[in-house]
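Subject: design request, 154 residues
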């Protein structure tokens, strides 16, 4: 469904870029509530949001399985803090998205920033600056002007 939403936004942007535009943020992992790195776990939610059976399984195992350890690292690498989340959204709202296909230098400059910049449409990754993350935020920083502040592994 995420891909379908991205494609719909890209299509509508190309059709109606002079009237409306879309900024798609590929959000990493956010937890409900305070969203603290120390509550990230293999289940993907802080303990107070886990179902009783999930919580008791984690407690009764006496430790983490290899698969759970990999899942926990995965969540920590794509974590997006509440502070960084807000900064990305504020920048997305103010972003000057190209509204026409053009050969102007400004449009060409924007095209080099990220491969997902088109008429009426911009798509960028939105995660915190987590050590060893697999997602590149360089284009996001250049386009949105946001440098993530937090690191789940710090």
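Subject: RE: design request

Done. Sequence follows.
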């Amino acid at each position: 469904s995420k891909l379908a939403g991205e494609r719909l936004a890209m299509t509508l942007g190309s059709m109606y870029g002079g009237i409306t535009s879309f900024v798609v943020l590929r959000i990493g992992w956010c937890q409900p509530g305070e969203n603290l790195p120390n509550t990230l776990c293999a289940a993907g939610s802080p303990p107070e949001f886990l179902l009783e059976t999930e919580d008791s399984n984690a407690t009764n195992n006496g430790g983490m399985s290899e698969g759970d350890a990999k899942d926990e690292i995965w969540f920590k690498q794509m974590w997006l803090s509440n502070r960084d989340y807000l900064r990305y959204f504020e920048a997305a709202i103010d972003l000057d998205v190209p509204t026409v296909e053009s050969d102007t230098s400004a449009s060409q400059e924007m095209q080099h920033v990220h491969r997902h910049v088109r008429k009426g449409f911009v798509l960028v990754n939105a995660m915190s600056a987590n050590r060893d993350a697999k997602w590149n935020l360089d284009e996001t920083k250049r386009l949105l002007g946001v440098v993530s502040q937090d690191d789940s592994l710090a």
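The two ends are 33 Å apart (CA to CA).
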